Every structure is written in C-alpha cells, then in structure tokens.
Amino acid sequence: MTDTANDAIAILGGTGDQGLGLALRFAKAGRPVRIGSRVPERAEAAAREVAAAVPGAKVSGAGNPEATAGAGVVILSVPFEHTATTLKAVKDSLAPGQIVVSMGVPLAAAIGDGAVRTLGVWQGSCAELVASLTPPGVHVVSAFQNVSAHRLRELDHEVACDVVVSGAPEPRKAVMALCALVPGLRAVDGGPLANARIVESVTALLIGLNIRYKVPAGIGIRFTGLPG
Amino acid sequence: MTDTANDAIAILGGTGDQGLGLALRFAKAGRPVRIGSRVPERAEAAAREVAAAVPGAKVSGAGNPEATAGAGVVILSVPFEHTATTLKAVKDSLAPGQIVVSMGVPLAAAIGDGAVRTLGVWQGSCAELVASLTPPGVHVVSAFQNVSAHRLRELDHEVACDVVVSGAPEPRKAVMALCALVPGLRAVDGGPLANARIVESVTALLIGLNIRYKVPAGIGIRFTGLPG
C-alpha cells in the first residue's frame, strides 16, 4: 500500500496537542486515522480518546513505523527537536508516492529559549529539513503550522484559519484538499516548499500575539483579497 | 521641532507607489504630510498629485533631509537597496524623539532575483538595519510592509489589512495610532522590533500569492481571534 489514493492519514506525534486535534478533525470527517507515537501504548490511548469523542471514528494507534507504512499521507506532528529522530525511525516504512506533511516549526523553545523566536535551520526550514531526510519519491509538503491546537480540539467550533500549503504542485493539491475536511480551515496555495521558511516563522509571531493579547486559545490568520 | 507631538508625517520615497499611497491616506485624514525624495522636483510633483486628489490636503514636497527635519514621524518608503543611502543622507536631520518607520522589505529583487524571496540581512531585518543606522534617541518602528500600494491608492475603498507594528512600546503605540487614520487598516501589536524579520518575509509570501492567484491589486492579511 504505497498508493497516495490510500485514504489513511497517519499522524506521527498524534498524542500531542496539535496532532490529536488534527486526528479528531480528520476522524470526524470520516477519514481513517492512524495515530503514531514512539510509545505504542500512548498512541493506543490517544486513539481511544478520539474514538470516544467521535462516534464511528476509524482510528487506530501504533508505533510510528507501523502507523507510517502504507498511509497515503503521513503528518509529522512532533516537536521540532524530534523531527530528525522521528524521520530516521520511519525511513524504512516510507515508500515512493507517499506524502509527508511537515507541520513543525523550529521554535527556539527547542533549545530552552522562547517560543516567540525561531532557530536558523541549515536547510532553510523544518519542511526542507524533512525533505532532506526522506527517501527519493516521497513528497514533502508544508502545512498546518499556523493552526491553533486548542481550536482544532474544540470539535463544536470552526477553526478560523487559513492554511498555507507549499510543496510540489500535485502533492500540494492533495494536502490542500485535506484542509477542506476541517470546518473553517481554508487552504491557500503557498507555492514551493521553501516558502515554509516564512510560514513557519509566522507561528512564532502568532505565539507572541497570543501572549500580548492574552488569547490562549490561539490567534490565526486569514488572507484578504483572495479570489472566490 | 523634534517633539513627537509634531503632527507632520514625512514620507521619504513618497514618490513611489506605496509611499504615495500612504501620503494620500494620511493627507485625507487631515494630517500634514511632507513628501521627500532625492530629487526635490519629484517630491513637489508628487505633492501636487496629492493636493489634486485630496481637497484641502496639507502636503508639501522637498528633498529628503528637508522633509525629515522636525517631522514627528518619518516613514522610510524607499526600495530596500536605497535604505542605507537614504538614512545616511538624512542622518543629520534626525533628532532624538523622532520616530522612523521602516516599511522596507529585503526582497531578492534588490539584487535582480525575484520579489517572492528575501535576502538575509546581517542585522536580521530591514527594520534592524535601519535601527543600526539611526542616531541615538531616534525610535525605529516597523510597520506597513504588508499593505498593498494599489489598495492604498484607491481612496474610495477600504484597505482590508492588518498592520503588524513592532518596536519599543511607546513609539510602537504612536505608530499603531497612525493606522487608525486609514479606513480598513487595523494595527496589531507586533512586540519587539526583531519581529520585523517575520513581518517583512510575509510580504514576499503575499507577492507570491498575488502572482499565483492573479490578484495584482494585492492580497492582505488579517489575524483571527484577536480580542475586541
């Protein structure tokens, strides 16, 4: 199962706030969701949480490599400092045609500094770091960095946020289509993967705004003047 | 006249699209506007254009140093590659208490590459470059980078865009208050000046979106979830 037509969405780091939020939303939209974790028991517990919140959810929990194998889309939702380790652990489970979604942000919190600043990444961004560590034929797409975990988890409310999706055209379109599964999210064509450099840094700006404006639930972004 | 209470707004590079757009808007709001240019005649011609479009406008044109001297707020609206030269030319006209607004973006167009990418600036951003070149006691604030020149110039329409304003608290507040003069602009507290690194790069992203979505008039941004 290496066909991108495969409906399953694996969420590595799906036990964390933002990963679990996406798992809930995609499960609610009827998509099969596989939650991955370094510790399979934690993934299974998170899967039970999703199943309890979303009646009829097609959700399972497993170790990261098992969750990855054959999933059409693999969302990498681990803290930035675990990005490389996680990718190395699942490398042999990835196959050409799969899409890996990078939603990580190189927040300086990774080295004990603040979350309102970013680190410089040699490759340019977390997404480009991910691309440098994935096998040939696997498509890397950048998305979801600016979406509030808190708002994702409030299943009864829309998530008012645009999602800038960048990467090669075809996989980018596939990930843009995923955004339509979550009420309130709007996909915006973010062009080539390197634009993740900008999108990732916006997350640090949003975290600063959350602090200054005292909005723990999370501030999002919308683009104005888009056609349609 | 070095008091920030001085109502005059100097716009250096006020003959360019975005500078002229701000000149029109501030003049329409009743503020005295001084358009500055390297070539005084061009500044005078731009001032006549503003006067023709805005009946009763308090607007004048002059060389950059003359426009700068004593203005409460000096907006630097020159192409990035002219930032340092312009600041060196007006340095002796700046005095403690004045606010210099950096709206430049280090687009790679400055070196003949595209406008959808940015250059790395040693100081971190155009705004921090500006801060490194201004005399002590002059306050540098970053703002207006993401506002479409085209939409500023359409005086009959609102400009639907948030303006992230960053810098030290007091001058930041003064520039946030300026945003309220332009219908549709909303000031957002962008925290310390270094956040200009993020805000400036967003302009390159917006330019890419304008191209991909064929919106020459310009796409803007709004933050969602802000209180009030």
Largest sheet properties of chain A: 6 strands, parallel
Secondary-structure element order of chain A, N to C = EHEHEHEHEHEHEHEHE
Oligomer: homodimer
Distance between the termini of chain A: 36 Å
Helical fraction of chain A equals 25-40%
Summarize the structure in short:
By secondary structure, chain A is α/β, with parallel strands linked by helices.
SSE topology sketch:
Two copies of one chain form a homodimer.
Chain A: E1 9-12, H1 17-28, E2 33-37, H2 40-53, E3 59-63, H3 64-68, E4 73-76, H4 83-90, E5 99-102, H5 126-133, E6 139-142, H6 149-153, E7 161-165, H7 169-179, E8 185-189, H8 196-212, E9 220-224
Parallel strand pairs in A: 1-2, 1-4, 2-3, 4-5, 5-6, 7-8
Your description of this structure?
The structure is a homodimer of 228-residue chains. By secondary structure, chain A is of the alpha/beta class. Chain A has 8 helices and 9 strands. Chain A has helices at 17-28, 40-53, 64-68, 83-90, 126-133, 149-153, 169-179, 196-212, and strands at residues 9-12, 33-37, 59-63, 73-76, 99-102, 139-142, 161-165, 185-189, 220-224. In chain A, the strands form 2 sheets. The first copy, chain A, has a 6-stranded parallel sheet with strand order 3-2-1-4-5-6. A two-stranded parallel ribbon of chain A has the order 7-8. In chain A, α4 links the parallel β4 and β5. Chain A binds chain B through residues 116-117, 148, 151, 160-161, 164, 188-191, 194-195, 197-199, 201-202, 204-206, 208-209, 212-215, 217-227, and chain B through 116-117, 148, 151, 160-161, 164, 188-191, 194-195, 197-199, 201-202, 204-206, 208-209, 212-215, 217-227. β9 of chain A pairs antiparallel with β9 of chain B, so a sheet runs across the interface.
